[in-house]
UniProtKB/TrEMBL annotation:
Gene (name only): argD
Enzyme Commission number(s): 2.6.1.11
Name recorded for this polypeptide: Acetylornithine aminotransferase
Main EC class the enzyme belongs to: transferase
Keywords, in A-Z order: Amino-acid biosynthesis, Aminotransferase, Arginine biosynthesis, Cytoplasm, Pyridoxal phosphate, Transferase
Binding site for pyridoxal 5'-phosphate: 108-109, 141, 226-229, 284
HAMAP family documented for this protein: ArgD_aminotrans_3
């Protein structure tokens, strides 16, 4: 039974929404696999994946099944009670990773908030209040709460909101000497994105992550990997730390974890987890049965050799064709990234114009992403069909041709 709804248009956004976003001119209304349709019935290919979220595309039958089954059973009970989907999801995450314990929340920012609070709590309990400093990296992104923008290395997101959280410093990414110079016995945690996502799809060097691990151990600091963007199969490993072979003490996950349903998770070891004793932290919706049932289904599909191997194969397909397009039209100089998190670095002539590429792609019926002004980002479904990759990249080539001819 469907209830008649009032018609709405893009123009309504400017009337009734807080103007902190600038959404595209069309409104998507339906999706299936890697295709999306807008209000006018126009079909687009989706290489944006809701910003690295729709890990299995749109309306994947396993996720629709898990969600509707749970929707008919139990939606919410709060953390005054536990629930079966949350416990099942925690088991799956613990079995598949270094972690012994999971904390569930509703977004990447909240997963990081929990990670940072845990790191400070552990240091406080073990060493006292002096040891509270957090080292993050320049250009990093960790979310939009006040703590997470303070830790994030982008003043454009943290300036102008009054006093920031203190005790945080930023060192250049992939620069082990800079980290070595900054870290001390006052450091409680070092926070790194294994691949910087928002600021241009910049993968870490293995030696950098290994060196960070060693420095943390030497100074009794915790190593936190923000895997909100890199986690849940994106790199062709379940988590990027497994791809790199460097294990953190705390890991944050969100985005792909819910495949489009909001959920975040902080994973850690038993020894650290015990510092978040009863009452020290929490969130009403965290571990919501609907979210956990969907995330469980996501893991069941993603954490299989076929899907993870497919990510690596699809990476090659994207990379080869994108390099060709970049060279043919002089649009970009480098295609970087791991698995299905790919960034095309715009050439000197197109620097600062990622938005123009985004717009040109949209005109050809293709959804892509920016990662800053100089990088065009692709974060498609991990099970995007090869035929959709070909068709989508044909559209991208048409966009590149028109853009560079104009
Ligand atoms: C998207 C992102 C976040 C923030 O996640 P939200 O769900 O938007 O709060 C944090 N860290 C990284 C690396 C991200 O890519």
């Amino acid at each position: 039974m469907s209830v008649e709804q009032a018609p709405v248009q893009r123009a309504d956004f400017d009337q009734v929404m807080v103007p902190n976003y600038a959404p595209a001119a069309f409104i998507p209304v339906r999706g299936a696999g890697s295709r999306v349709w807008d209000q006018a019935g126009r079909e687009l290919i989706d290489f944006a994946g809701g910003i690295a979220v729709n890990v299995l595309g749109h309306a994947h039958p396993a996720l629709v099944g898990a969600l509707t089954e749970q929707a008919n059973k139990l939606w919410h009970v709060s953390n005054v009670f536990t629930n079966e989907p949350a416990l099942r999801l925690a088991h799956k995450l613990v079995d598949a990773t270094f972690a012994d314990r999971a904390f569930f929340c509703n977004s990447g920012a909240e997963a990081n908030e929990a990670a940072f609070k845990l790191a400070r709590r552990v240091a406080h309990d073990r060493f006292g209040p002096e040891k509270h400093e957090i080292i993050a990296t320049v250009n990093s992104f960790h979310g939009r709460t006040l703590f997470t923008v303070s830790v994030g290395g982008q003043p454009k997101y943290s300036d102008g909101f009054g006093p920031k959280i203190t005790g945080i410093s930023h060192v250049p990414y992939n620069d082990l000497d800079a980290l070595k110079a900054q870290i001390s016995d006052k450091t409680c945690a070092v926070v790194i994105e294994p691949i910087q996502g928002e600021s241009g799809v910049v993968p870490a060097d293995v030696a950098y992550l290994q060196g960070a691990r060693e420095l943390c151990d030497k100074h009794n600091a915790l190593l936190i990997f923000d895997e909100v963007q890199t986690g849940v199969g994106r790199t062709g490993s379940l988590f990027a730390y497994q791809h790199y072979g460097v294990t953190p003490d705390i890991l944050s996950s969100a985005k792909s974890l819910g495949g489009g349903f909001p959920i975040g998770a902080m994973l850690t070891t038993e020894d650290l987890a015990k510092h978040l004793a009863v009452g020290t932290h929490g969130t009403t919706y965290g571990g919501n049965p609907l979210a956990c049932a969907v995330a469980s289904a996501v893991l069941d599909v993603v954490n299989t050799p076929e899907v993870l191997a497919g990510v690596k194969a699809k990476h090659q397909k994207f990379k080869a064709r994108l390099e060709q397009i970049g060279e043919k039209y002089g649009l970009f100089t480098q295609v970087r990234g791991v698995g299905l998190l790919i960034g095309c670095v715009l050439s000197e002539a197109w620097k600062g114009k990622a938005k123009d590429v985004f717009n040109a792609a949209e005109k050809e019926g293709l959804m892509v992403l920016q990662a800053g002004p100089d990088v065009v980002r692709f974060a498609p479904s991990l099970v995007v069909e090869d035929a959709d990759i070909d068709e989508g990249l044909d559209r991208f080539e048409r966009a590149a041709a028109k853009l560079t001819q104009a």
